[in-house]
Amino acid sequence: MLTIRSNKRPQGPILTPVRPANTRHPRQSDTTRALAGIVAILLGTGALTLGAPTAAAEVPPDQVALSTLDEIVRGDYPAAAADFNPTMQSLLPTQALQQSWDLYQQVFGAYQSHGVPENIQRGDVTVVNVPLQMTRRPGQFRLTVQPDGSVASLTFLKEGVPVP
Question: Is residue 7 part of a domain?
Answer without folding.
Answer: no
